[in-house]
Amino acid sequence: MLVDSRRGLLVSGSLLLGAVVMGLLVFLPVTAPAVQSVDDAVWRFAGAVENEPTTAVATVLSWLGSAEVNWPLRAAALLLLAWRRHWLRAAAFTLAVVSSELFIGPVKEWTDRARPPGALIETTGASFPSGHAIATAVTAVGLVLVLAHPGPGRWRWEVNAVVFTSIMALSRVYLRAHWLSDTVAGALLGAGLALGWPALLMAIRHQHDPTAPTS
Predict the structure, then answer these.
(1) Has residue 23 been placed in a domain?
(2) Which of 45, 81, 193, 197 has the CB geometry, 3.0–4.6 Å to 90, for a possible disulfide?
(3) Cα–Cα distance between 173 and 116 in angstroms, integer?
(4) Quick check: 116 and 177 in contact, CB under 8 A?
């Protein structure tokens, strides 16, 4: 899955730390007003540029980040990995998905951040972190890691995965379903989990069997 599991752990840790830092910035009394002022400015900008074509595109992008799309893709990937007998990859992807899903609900309940006013689509639950951003990052980044072979081709797919996750997250901000900081934290968390589990499992395997293949 990864050429260098140690580098993967380092990058994953940096992404997860970034998500934690964003959460602290959002909720610590000393930094919360500054973050909210940025979120408010982005919210006002989204309202100022609102138009029907952009709303239609944003709604489709938001749907692409929904459970209705993510879960079938995840199931298909796991079936393919099982058919190929890539058990370590299947385990890494499963752990990334399960840990992300177990994380979303409790954190939303604990933070209980209000959604932005004037949402253009129906929303449920608290705002922080963005479940759409977490799920899309886990699925998009995770699928590339477990399905694509290491090399230049994978890097292109990873860039595409990151770009898609970012655009989807911004669609949620445009639709006023989330504050910008919700989506940034969610994307960092999802990408960190998607990268961290493969890196951790590979590091464990290498510790027990140094001759094991790196991919």
Answers:
(1) yes
(2) 81
(3) 9
(4) yes
